[in-house]
Amino acid sequence: MAQRFGSFEDFADYAKRQVAYAEQYVRDTSGRFIVLEGTSTCGGRVVKVAPYTHRFHSDYVRRLEHRLEKEILPVLERFKHFSHVILTIDPKRFPSQAIARAAVSKAVHSLVTRLRRRYPWIVVFKVVEWQKNGIGIHAHLLIGGKEYIPKDFIEATWSSLSSSGWAVEIRPVRGEAKYVVRYLLKYILKSVGSIDVSSAVNWALNIRAFSVSMPRELRSELKAVRERVEEERRQRQMALLEWAEERDDVCIPEGDWAYVGTLLGVLDVKPGIYEGAEAERILELAYREAI
After folding, report:
1. Burial of residue 145, with CB atoms counted within 10 A of its CB: 0-12 exposed, 13-18 middle, 19 or more buried
2. H runs (alpha helix) in the chain
3. What is the distance between the alpha carbons of residues 242 and 54, in angstroms, rounded to a whole number?
4. CA–CA distance, 116 with 125 (Å, rounded to integer)
5. In the chain, helix, strand, coil percent, each to 5?
6. How, if at all, do strands 137-144 and 45-51 pair?
7. Which of 104-113, 148-157, 195-204, 234-243 has the lowest mean pLDDT?
8. What number of CA atoms fall less than 13 Å from residue 287's CA on the CB side?
9. Which range among 5-14, 113-122, 159-168, 281-290 shows the weakest confidence by mean pLDDT?
10. How far is residue 235's CA from residue 213's CA, in Å, rounded to a whole number?
11. What is the sign of the dihedral through the CA atoms of 160, 161, 165 and 170?
12. CA 79 remoteness from chain centre
């Protein structure tokens, strides 16, 4: 979906079409559900109906917020100093969105590598924001562990993408880790949730909501955090299963879910857990739509 154009007007018009494509995609997937099949503690089949989510869906935003709170916040709480680096390209240098995106990715990777050599303890988050002209890019770097990075150090890498003195901005971010997470989320939400030029182009080019670079020891800590969150979930599930086994009149899902298919436009089916005749009806609908 990324094409070459000769003028800003061409890029701006194409960006408007990308927004229209994203809006059509949301309309096309509205009312679509994913159907999963499992078993219950009573031995019968159960069906789980879940919303079809994407980066513009409110459930996707809630999952991002949950990840930031449960995984990223514990990492940031070890730092007292933070900075926000805003990197802007010269859009006249790039004939397509894809080429601009590739150049930014390469330059940011090189910059983060140099930063890590000089400041090996830092954590760097990256968010890509497209300008309304459809070709300009702001790369937002939120850095944990440094309140300021020398501008000439950054320009040594970024000068290949812009020679403007305004292409590199550095701002200290003052506040505790919880504030920094909210600050980061503000920029992530420029790429997900609602539809505008930036979120539509990121969707068209399949650019992640954010990326993070951190030292190996912090990655090990993050892995431990994820494992702890997953263990807490398993413990809650085990407690629920034990409770259900003590009651003859309660049936709850157990084990893994298997993907069956999707449903679209079935007005009397809502997200939830189904069993018995209603579960069989939903399975039949999903199988029929898959044919």
Report:
1. buried
2. 8-29, 58-67, 73-76, 97-118, 151-158, 177-188, 197-204, 216-245, 276-290
3. 35
4. 13
5. 50, 25, 30
6. unpaired
7. 234-243
8. 8
9. 5-14
10. 31
11. negative
12. 23
The CATH number covering residue 194 comes to 3.30.70.1910
Same domain, 104 and 203: yes
Residue 104 contacts residue 167 (beta carbons within 8 Å): no
Interatomic CA distance for residues 57 and 137, integer angstroms: 24
Task: Look at the block and give the residue holding tokens 């830092």.
Answer: 122
Q: Please tell me the distance from the alpha carbon of residue 261 to that of residue 263, in angstroms, as a whole number.
A: 7
Range of the domain at 272: 31-55+223-290
The residue behind tokens 């209603």 is: 278
- Which position has the higher pLDDT, 250 or 4? 250
Residue 48: closest CA among 218, 289, 269, 207? 269
Quick check: is 141 in a domain?
Answer: yes
Specify whether 82 is located in the same domain as 109.
Answer: yes
Helix or strand or coil: residue 249? coil
Closest CA to 143 of 103, 182, 184: 184
Give the number of C-alpha atoms closer than 13 A to the C-alpha of residue 241, restricted to the C-beta side: 12
273 in any annotated domain: yes
Residues 35 and 157 in one domain: no
Model confidence pLDDT, tens digit, residues 181-229: 888 888 888 788 889 999 999 999 999 989 999 998 888 887 888 888 8
Reading the block at residue 25, the tokens are: 């995609």
* In the chain, % of residues over pLDDT 90: 45
Residues 82, 198: one domain?
yes
- What token pair was written down for 183? 């600050």
Q: Other C-beta atoms within 10 Å of 107: how many?
A: 19
